[in-house]
Design brief:
The chain is mostly beta strands. The protein is 6% helix and 45% strand. The chain has 1 helix and 10 strands; from the N terminus they run E-E-E-H-E-E-E-E-E-E-E. A 7-stranded mixed β-sheet has the order 6-7-8-9-4-3-10. A 3-stranded antiparallel β-sheet has the order 1-2-5, with no helix packed on it.
């Protein structure tokens, strides 16, 4: 099991199940959402993600047709990314994990948008 939370602690979650894979997305939407060069995620079964505190603090944003991003409405921490057509899976932001994730990133997405200012 993995546990995680937002920056302010208003939202806490648990993942009960296996991580399918970890990814880094370089798309410009993830860059803007995270305020960083990329968005790091793990992919899990939606049924394995349990919000254990603060569901009322979660704000959702439809960033494109059929894609919803969730974040803490109090502190702004990015929490999840999900496609409507694959609602049985959800991507959870690695930066919000409280339990250390020992897996490796195995997928890089939208590498054509990787910023040139990176070393």
């Amino acid at each position: 099991m993995y546990t995680g939370s937002c920056l302010c602690g208003a939202v806490r979650y648990e993942i009960h199940g296996d991580v399918d894979y970890a990814s880094i997305c370089w798309c410009t939407m993830c860059q803007k959402q995270h305020g960083a060069a990329n968005g790091p995620y793990v992919n899990v079964a939606s049924s394995d993600l349990r919000i254990v505190a603060g569901p009322e603090a979660i704000t959702r944003y439809a960033s494109s047709p059929g894609v919803e991003r969730a974040f803490c409405g109090v502190c702004g921490s990015n929490l999840t990314w999900q496609m409507a057509e694959h609602s049985d899976r959800i991507a959870v932001t690695l930066g919000t994990f409280d339990t250390p994730y020992e897996g490796r990133v195995t997928h890089e997405l939208h590498t054509d948008s990787k910023p040139g200012w990176l070393p």
